[in-house]
């Protein structure tokens, strides 16, 4: 059987391996997967149920998303970016945010072209670059004052790229880009004539004291930016599997073709529920406050250990190598001795990511997170 070069360097998430090892033991702290116990908006749940009862959205059409949802996305984007997007020509609904990544990469890259990501980054972004036959170029994040920072000098040294594929806040690190970071990205995109593919799935999950900047608000970036959004994280609607792409009309024409032939249509029932989530109060502010409180609990519990604090998002990282333990071994010891399910970052970047184990704090209440230090001590 022939080998396929696209898969040569594609690695497993490792999340499923850790989850299977943890099983269904209720005594295990579940910090391996990006789930959440903070409930979705009740109004969105009710609207989805009503759509099912009424038979709304039970159709293949429209391929690019229901008009009511595309209009709600346009209104949300106008508030975030200050830009008016044409719902028909510049917005396409997808089956979750990550399902949008491959069609966008296919529309903006040719085989062998370079795509810039951070190290670490979300494995679902990095491995999709490889599956699209593009070449990932990793710009390292470094730790400064206990927080992650973008290596802007490394960014300035890049000599070729078709696109930059970035998140803020980013998985798995929780890094939040500053105005200076985005200005450096804008300079690099303009210099290299590259697109910015911006995964905005966590854009509003930013903790107090850190900036929240949409790159479309940065000079010279809006006309190059393709936004990928979803309701999975901000709205806690993971199971709905609804996301979207928005961007300049010329490139969106290609992206819509790629999305249509990839999935045909996202769930119509779910689209109706998501439209309500985007247009009515949905508890985002309250959820962010809860995630910040959980993050602070993790930071207090692991004081003195090599934890890098997050500025936003649902997870943070522990430096296993600074503890003198390879990341996979620390993950195994946390589970077998400390009863903590946590994922090593083997597939989530390069030299930087491989040092770390991720702790997801979005799916465990503060009362259980308060046991974290005792469990770490047992593991170590």
From TrEMBL:
Top-level taxon of the source organism: Bacteria
Instruction: Enumerate the cofactors the protein uses.
Output: pyridoxal 5'-phosphate
Residue span, Aminotransferase class I/classII large domain? 38-370
Q: Which GO terms describe its molecular function?
A: transaminase activity
Q: Does the keyword Transferase apply?
A: yes
- Does the record bear Transferase in its keywords? yes
Would you tell me the protein name for this molecule? Pyridoxal phosphate-dependent aminotransferase
> To which species is this protein native?
Nonomuraea typhae
